[in-house]
Amino acid sequence: NEVEDKPTYQINILGFSQGAATASRWVTQSNIHFDLLILWAGIFPPDMEIEQAHKKLRGKKIVLAVGSNDSYVSKERLSEQHKLASGLELSTKVFTYDGGHEIDNNTLRKIAD
């Protein structure tokens, strides 16, 4: 009997604010293995290559986290992200928390569960 070497861990990538665009570029332009991409108080970059992003992100867990009082991520920008994710045939989950442009510990715990 051969035992397959499967990782017993999950790789999560979190990009905060402008780091969300950086994380998006990194996962779509490299061969990094990951299970979950969290874009926190940030969005996919407007210059992201759509075809490449579709290949790399299809089937991955993608979370958008945003504070209800975040002045940097408007409802319009969040709506644009939903449209982009839908166009890329990505399944995204949105977590909204009471707060501003910050990482909320309780929300991060919910995402990690």
Query: Based on the structure, what is the oligomeric state of the protein chains?
Result: single chain
Mean pLDDT: 89
Count of discrete alpha- or pi-helical segments spanning 4 or more residues: 4
- Share in β-strands: 15-25%
State Rg. 15 Å
Major sheet: arrangement of strands: 1-2-3-4
Largest β-sheet summary = 4 strands, parallel
Distance between the termini: 33 Å
How do the SSEs run, as a string of H and E?
Answer: EHEHEHEH
Q: Report the principal-axis shape.
A: globular
Helix content: 25-40%
List how many beta strands DSSP finds: 4
Are there runs of 5+ residues with pLDDT below 50, and where? none
Based on secondary structure, the structural category is: alpha/beta
Structural write-up:
The protein is of the alpha/beta class and about 110 residues long. About 35% of the residues lie in helices and about 20% in strands. The chain is built from four helices and four strands. It starts with 11 loop residues before the first strand and ends with a helix.
Short description:
With 113 residues, the protein is α/β, with parallel strands linked by helices. It contains four helices and four strands; from the N terminus they run βαβαβαβα.
Q: What are the main properties of this structure?
A:
113 residues; alpha/beta; 4 strands; globular
